[in-house]
Each structure stands twice: as C-alpha cells, then as structure tokens.
Amino acid sequence: MLPRKSIIPEEFAFSPALVSPIPRKPVFRDRVNKARFIAKSGACNLSHKNIREQGRFLQDVVTTLVDLKWRFTLVIFSMTFLCSWLLFAMFWWLVAFAHGDLDTNRKPGAEQCFTNVNSFTSAFLFSIEVQVTIGFGGRMITEQCPTAITVLILQNIIGLIINAIMLGCIFMKTAQSHRRAETLIFSRHAVIAVRNNRLCFMIRVGDLRKSMIINAVVRLQVVRKTTTPEGEVIPIHQIDVQTESAVAGNSIFLLAPLIICHVIDKDSPLYDLSAMELQCSDLEVIVILEGVVETTGISTQARTSYVTEEIQWGHRFVPIVTEEEGVYSVDYSKFGNTVKVATPRCSARELDEKPSILIQTLQKSELSHQNSLRKRNSMRRNNSMRKNNSMRRNNSALAVPKVQFLTPEGGPNLAVT
C-alpha cells in the first residue's frame, strides 16, 4: 500500500469500501444516536428505573439529603423547622389549656405555667423563642409546672438535633468534592501518535488552581459492547487501560499540565485497531482523575470521556510550558491545540509485525519536510530576485537621460545634462 499512497490520494487509498466490507454510512448513522456513558463534564449518563425498594434511601437520610438538589434541600430545611415549631406550639398550648392558663374566668393571682401565653399564636411564638433561644423576655415558664419543664428540655434536645443534621447537610453540600473538580480540566480531544517508536494514546490534564491535588492518580478505561464466545452480550464492558504514570509510581505530580500516555501494546484493547477501524468502531475511553485536595483533605474525582470522533489519529499536543524570566509560564489558550505529525495509519499489531512501516513513514515525512523547505527557500529566492529586479527598474527609470548635440561639422557630440 505504500507505493500506491504516493499516487492515490490518502482519502481514497484508505476508503472503507476498499478496506472493510462494512458500509461506512450505516456505521456512523448508528453511532450518532448512541448515548455516551460519561459526558464531557464528567456526569454519568445513566438512568435508574423500576427501583422497587425505595425505602432503602430513607435508611441513610444524611446521604439522601446531600444528594438532593438545592431547591429540595432548602424546602426540607425550612419545613423541618416550621413543623417542629408548630408541633411544640401545640404541646405548649395543651399544657397551658390543661393547667387552666387559657381560662378567662380564672382568679387573679392564681398559679400559672406560663406568662403571657393566652392563645395558640402566643404559644407558637413561645415555641420559636425556646427552640432558637431568642428570648424576648415577655413569655417564660414558671416553676409551678413540672410538665412544662419536661417539654422545654425535650424541645431543646430535638432542636439541637435538627440544627446539627440540617446544618451538617448544607455544609457537606457546599464542600462536596466535585466542586474542586470544576478546576481540573482535560483536553477536548485525545490523540494517537508515535512516541519512543511506539504507537501511543495520549490526553492532556491540568489544574487551574495553585493548591495542588495530592496523590493524584489517572485511570483509563475502555467501554464498549462485547459478546462472549458463549453468546452473552455485555452492553457495558469496562476494560482497564494501563498508563505510563501508573507503571512508574501509581501517582502523578500535577503541578503543571501533563500529557498522560498509554502505550498501545499487545495488552491494550486498541492493539488491533487501525485509523479507519477506530473511526468505524463503537468504543469510549473514560478518564478518571482522583486525588486529595490539599487545602481541605477531601478526596475528589474528575471524569471525562472520549468517543472515536474525539480521537485524532496522527496528532500531537503543542508545548504550552515556557520559561520566562526565571519563571515557568503555562499558556492555557493552547491547552487543547494539536499539530499533525507523521504517524502510520495501520494498527499497532501491524507495526510490531512490520517495523519497516514506521521507518518508511518517517522517511517519507522527512522527505516531504525537506521538499517543503526547498520550496520555501526557492520561493524566498524568487521573491528576492523579483524585488531586486523591481528595484533595478525603478533605479533605471530615475537615471539622468542622455542628450545628443550636433557640432557645426555635423558630427554627433554626446553630453550628459
């Protein structure tokens, strides 16, 4: 195929109609409607249906409240306090009614459980004052009613429990780990190129904050639909993919943006895929970045995924870290920029079986690079020659003309004026 590549254009030499018997249009039409497992923002695109044991969520009330949306959490927060105030207002009103404090015909100077509690409205205000410890001083309990003292102790205990649970849930919602993950970014596209004479799958990760992620670990997974030899269909088959950082030390030092590299070897699920087969395949590469937030000590996790349309074959990330006046500078405007590089279009298996393919590809790239340099040099020479010719013409046009004079003898006499 290499001699033909120089004659036939690349987009026709690797046409799917010639390489694979599978038609190209139906493949891409099916994949457009397919939902991805992990969204680019990191959200799991999964819907739970027909859950019969709904009561399990009430067994862990705190986690359920934290997982709820903010509008539901605020409604539950407000309704919990309001219901507790109303409940104990009813208790205070019953105690006052049983003791006779609400009787308008009671004798002056008779013993009372409360002062200035004459209706349910005043009992409700007294309940609020007791639970939130406002204490305006207009209403209070006397020592003549042990029942009222018991209700007072009970309301204080229940109020402290409600405050601890609800405030704890709100604090946990505001300090959730995925909030820190908003400043962990991934490149928009993944690339496949040759690095150290091996075909590699690469992505770029970075952290926008100066506070670091401690013990950061990056994991890759390939998710695709597979069928076992027994005929079992696995719709979401997760295959772990090894990275260079995991092999070296199982963690990365995420001080500046890093390129995470996966060498496509015989243990890789991408080992048998060529450039055209990758575009026609139905797989998704999931990237998971985990670590501990330095400032809070809370574990965080950032996720993203790459489908086949977002994997660029034959590209490489441009450098974005430079040294300026003794300080390393990171240009995040070029975070996802890539450039084309010489990369064989065949699979990693074919490269291992025929190493000459890589050599020939690099040689062709070097020849094309030299030809481009020659063309640039020739164009520069032509432009310089044109400029010199134009300058000569302008100088000749500005030269002083010669005038011919005739002598009396009739012979010409040339003079310059």
Automatic annotation (TrEMBL):
Q: Where is this region: Disordered?
A: 367-395
Show the Gene3D superfamilies listed in the entry.
1.10.287.70, G protein-activated inward rectifier potassium channel 1
List each copy of the Potassium channel inwardly rectifying transmembrane domain by range.
38-176
Q: Which reaction does it catalyse?
A: K(+)(in) = K(+)(out)
Membrane topology summary: Multi-pass membrane protein
Q: Which InterPro entries match?
A: Ig_E-set, IRK_C, K_chnl_inward-rec_Kir, K_chnl_inward-rec_Kir6.1, K_chnl_inward-rec_Kir_cyto, Kir_TM
| Annotated localization | Membrane
Ranges of Low complexity compositional bias?
A: 380-395
What keywords sit in the KW lines?
Answer: Ion channel, Ion transport, Membrane, Phosphoprotein, Potassium, Potassium transport, Transmembrane, Transmembrane helix, Transport, Voltage-gated channel
Which chain regions cross the lipid bilayer? Answer: 74-95, 148-171
**Protein's GO biological process:** nervous system development; potassium ion import across plasma membrane; regulation of monoatomic ion transmembrane transport
One Gene Ontology cellular component annotation held by this UniProt entry: monoatomic ion channel complex
Q: Which domain of life is it from?
A: Eukaryota
Q: Where is this site: Role in the control of polyamine-mediated channel gating and in the blocking by intracellular magnesium?
A: 163
Q: Which residues form the Inward rectifier potassium channel C-terminal domain?
A: 184-354
What are the recorded GO MF terms, alphabetically?
ATP-activated inward rectifier potassium channel activity
**What family, per the record?**
Belongs to the inward rectifier-type potassium channel (TC 1.A.2.1) family.
Q: What's the protein here called?
A: Potassium inwardly rectifying channel subfamily J member 8
The protein's organism comes out as Cyprinus carpio carpio
